[in-house]
């Protein structure tokens, strides 16, 4: 299956997004006005509004929003909300706004013109009120259905001419290309802004400046399949910062408007890329839009009913494609910091990107760690490049427990004794910065060795899939066939109020 290939952004080329000064946010009942403050998107009160979006296409040849022949639009909007997304990046071709012949077609006429009789039947069953709407009015009806669920909408001019994006010869690449007339493009944007000016949940088309970037596994060629994943992740993260991430440090909001992977679970490139991308998104607390919602297309690249393996929903649009990988996306939905979220002094979260969970103290009296939802995390204190990992606020001043390795395959434990010795001094041992390791001079070298004649023990997930243990560090460097993601833990800064009381340890 061909992934969503975006020629313009394979090299992480920046696009521009403007945030319209109107909109609603699902966490607040009333419509709000959005603006920008330094690197943040904020509401009227100056509080951060984090965009946690999913892409929903309307830019392919029929110019009909995908899925209307599969499920009622209200049901789709409801699923978007139930999955935790507060925003949809809704795509369209500029021709919809500039070609009156196209925009005046009805949904029925356009689908039949493309031989999609079965889709017409599906729309008649699921969304009968759409069939005789014009293509432009049908797009607005989708936006309104999302508004009824208090879902924000970013209108994305995805292409000029309706069709799949992107290829080397599609004529949509940049100004001056065959189908990219700059004057027509500006006219189309102005038309869309006027057409949707009375729709309060449309928050992105023009106004305040936000930079936009895309990043997929194929942005890095075939490196994920052939090289050590730590080395590739480190290089990809540096490239992201060099080409886009630096903007946040300069006070500009950055929107990762497309990222995603094959959700079936068998793609080596996607399985290695996605935890790395999630770690980058979490560390920088990015606004983002996952590609993509749709489980299938009415028509894509001449194929009727094509499956979309990157889709959150399955082919029928009736359920989630993969319940196991969904938490990896959902873990990024919650803002970690920013205006209005300075609820606590900065602390670290031990984020495990391959599961989307975070390491926190287990049940009282066990002195061990387990993976929990990240809104149930504990506050950790850590000072790179090497220091103790201290569970902050868990005891009286001066008695904060530290994390200690006990040996291969054994649970990492919390205690107040021997804090600062070799087995409680943690360092980031791999290029990715996600192997959290101690040196164990009594153990034989691990798979990659620790230097000094001793082995290195890294945080790992136990066989039960929940407990946090230590094991010899795997895949630190060199071996391109080795998968290190189970041992990846990212230290991420947060200022959110803790949802649970810190554990009290003896």
Q: Overview of this structure, please?
A:
- With 506 residues, this protein is an alpha+beta fold.
- It contains eleven helices and 28 strands.
- It has helices at 73-82, 95-98, 100-103, 107-113, 117-126, 135-148, 182-195, 223-226, 229-249, 268-284, 326-330; strands at 15-19, 23-25, 28-32, 35-37, 40-42, 52-56, 87-93, 152-159, 202-204, 208-214, 254-259, 287-290, 299-300, 303-304, 347-352, 357-361, 369-373, 380-381, 386-387, 390-391, 402-404, 410-411, 413-415, 426-428, 436-440, 455-461, 468-472, 490-494.
- The strands form eight sheets. The protein has an eight-stranded mixed sheet. The protein has a six-stranded antiparallel sheet with strand order 19-24-25-26-27-22, with no helix packed on it.
- The N and C termini lie far apart (55 Å).
- Residues 1-16, 18-30 and 446-454 have low confidence and may be disordered.
């Amino acid at each position: 299956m061909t992934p969503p290939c975006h020629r313009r952004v394979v090299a992480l080329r920046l696009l521009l997004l403007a945030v319209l000064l109107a909109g609603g946010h699902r966490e607040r009942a009333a419509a709000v006005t959005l603006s920008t403050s330094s690197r943040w998107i904020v509401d009227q009160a100056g509080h951060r509004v984090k965009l946690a979006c999913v892409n929903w296409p309307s830019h392919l040849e029929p110019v009909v929003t995908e899925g209307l022949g599969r499920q009622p639009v209200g049901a789709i909007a409801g699923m978007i909300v139930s999955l935790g997304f507060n925003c949809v990046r809704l795509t369209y071709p500029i021709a919809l706004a500039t070609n009156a012949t196209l925009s005046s077609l009805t949904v029925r006429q356009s689908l039949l013109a493309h031989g999609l009789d079965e889709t017409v039947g599906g729309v008649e069953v699921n969304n009968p009120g759409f069939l005789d709407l014009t293509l432009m009015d049908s797009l607005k009806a989708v936006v309104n259905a999302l508004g009824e669920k208090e879902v924000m909408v970013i209108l994305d001019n995805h292409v000029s001419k309706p069709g799949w994006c992107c290829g080397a010869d599609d004529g949509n690449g940049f100004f001056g290309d065959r189908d990219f007339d700059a004057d027509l493009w500006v006219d189309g944007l102005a038309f869309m802004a006027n057409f949707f000016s009375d729709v309060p949940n449309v928050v992105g088309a023009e106004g305040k400046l936000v930079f936009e970037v895309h990043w997929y596994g194929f942005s890095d060629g075939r490196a994920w399949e052939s090289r050590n994943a730590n080395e590739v992740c480190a290089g990809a993260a540096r490239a992201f910062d060099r080409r886009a991430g630096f903007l946040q440090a300069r006070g500009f909001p950055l929107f990762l408007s497309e990222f995603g992977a094959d959700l079936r679970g068998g793609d080596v490139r996607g399985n290695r890329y996605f935890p790395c991308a999630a770690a980058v998104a979490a560390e920088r607390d990015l606004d983002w839009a996952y590609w993509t919602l749709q489980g299938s297309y009415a028509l894509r690249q001449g194929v009727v009913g094509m499956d979309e393996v990157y889709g959150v929903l399955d082919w029928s649009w009736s359920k989630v494609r993969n319940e196991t990988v969904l938490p990896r996306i959902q873990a990024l939905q919650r803002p970690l910091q920013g205006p209005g979220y300075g609820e606590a002094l900065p602390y670290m979260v031990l984020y495990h990107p391959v599961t989307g969970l975070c390491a926190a103290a287990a049940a009282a009296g066990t002195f061990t760690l387990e993976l929990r939802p990240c809104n149930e995390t504990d506050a950790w204190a850590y000072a790179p490049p090497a220091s103790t990992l201290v569970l902050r606020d868990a005891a009286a001043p001066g008695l904060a427990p530290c994390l200690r390795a006990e040996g291969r395959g054994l649970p990492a434990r919390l205690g107040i004794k021997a804090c600062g010795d070799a087995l409680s001094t943690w360092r980031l041992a791999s290029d990715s910065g996600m192997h959290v390791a101690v040196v164990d001079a009594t153990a034989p070298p691990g798979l990659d060795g620790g230097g000094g004649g001793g082995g290195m023990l890294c945080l790992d997930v136990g066989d039960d899939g929940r407990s946090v243990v230590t094991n010899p560090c795997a895949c630190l460097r060199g071996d391109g066939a080795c998968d290190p993601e189970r041992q990846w833990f990212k230290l991420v800064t947060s200022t959110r109020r803790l949802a649970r009381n810190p554990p009290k340890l003896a």
